[in-house]
Amino acid sequence: MSDDFLIPSPSRRRFMGATAAAVAAASLSQLAFSQTLQGITEVKSAPNGDKTAIRPLRVHVPEAQLVDLRRRIKATRWPDKETVNDDSQGVPLAMMQEVARHWSTDYDWRRCEAKLNALPNYVTEIDGLDIHFIHVRSKHENAMPLIVTHGWPGSVIEQFKIIDPLTNPTAYGASASDAFHLVIPSLPGYGFSARPTEVGWGPERTARAWVVLMKRLGYDKFAAQGGDLGGIVANVMAKQAPPELLGIHVNFPATIPPEIAKALQAGSPPPANLGDDEKHAYEQLASAAKSRRAYALEQGTRPQTLYGLSDSPIALASWLLDHGDGYIQPAAALTSAVYGRDVNGESAGAMTRDDVLDDITLYWLTNTGISAARFYWESHFNFLAAADVSVPAAVSVFPRENYQAPRSWTERAYHDLIYYNRPDKGGHFAAWEQPQLFAQEVRAGLRPLRQS
């Protein structure tokens, strides 16, 4: 594959940049902002009323909503303390009361709002739904277009710390040839994307929408990246194999072979013929099935029942924080960040307590607790079952992920595996925890696509 297929030509890039700037300028100069999403965002209307136009978005939460949030937190009716001395019954009372204290007294949403508004935010309607996205173009020639998708319980806030390392690699000791143009969308029903009012917005429809989005931005060739649900969307994009997709990088690989999935479902011990890394992965998956999937089961079967996510900030926060393994993985980094110290030797890395509260507050202000959960209900396959894709794929297996996907399984699931690596630190929320290392992995993983 020649370089001509990897990135737009210089003349085309200039045309696209000028066109995008002209559209944005026309929208900004001619029409007033319209209030959306409970009045917390302002979106420019297109001059001709075309909702598929790329429309700038700004965030401004009325102070009354922040006052109400603090009031609701302080009015929480607390349950009794758990009857154990660990987190085996759920998020400990002391932890949630500390979250409540900081959230209602010291936390400053305006700081996060300023970060959001410092980035180029847009909305465009795709298949009848407004999709929000951040679009940051690199200053470097030949930057590769890359769409990066967040997961649950995350949002575009997860990606803040990787934007500059990926778009401006020379500032971090990397080569200009590794630069990316970044598109970071909010999943349907998450953040500033609209909440679907009809069934069907699962991974498959989202994957198709991402192709429409990238083409609408003028990218006729691009790569995709994702972790957690974002990894699922990237895998589905690869399975659909649109001609515009160069390849994918995932840090939440889907690699479980059918025979392993069958044994796990039966509750059987590890098959005798497994290698050491395969046996370790099997044991991790078996443990996860027993204690870490309650939230996913509820969201996948009865998401509408979770009314507390819309009514109580503390109910929302505890639900988003609980992965059934608060001191282990993948929630360990979240737990350590909330406490502001390493818990059981688990580091939060670059993730802070306010990072976590930024994310939770975004869910609260946009009232997307249930609509985000519904994405699981809309998903009709095992997220970790072997991806079975032939599009070029890069895989990073972080040590504190749900399971460490063995290379042997990964090669069976991704038939054109162009990169496989096991970094020495980081976990499920790798972009949050280890943004520099994560950026290195994305650069290295997708570098072969530039050379093909």
UniProtKB/TrEMBL annotation:
Keywords annotated in UniProt: Aromatic hydrocarbons catabolism, Hydrolase
Q: Which InterPro entries match?
A: AB_hydrolase_fold, Epox_hydrolase-like, Epoxide_hydro_N, Epoxide_hydrolase, TAT_signal, TAT_signal_bac_arc
> What highest taxon heads this organism's lineage?
Bacteria
Any one GO molecular-function label of the UniProt entry = hydrolase activity
- This protein's record includes keyword 4Fe-4S: no
The Epoxide hydrolase N-terminal domain, residue ranges: 54-158
KW Hydrolase (keyword) present: yes
Give the matching Gene3D superfamilies. Answer: alpha/beta hydrolase (3.40.50.1820)
For this chain, the family text in UniProt reads: Belongs to the peptidase S33 family.
Name of the protein this chain belongs to: Alpha/beta fold hydrolase
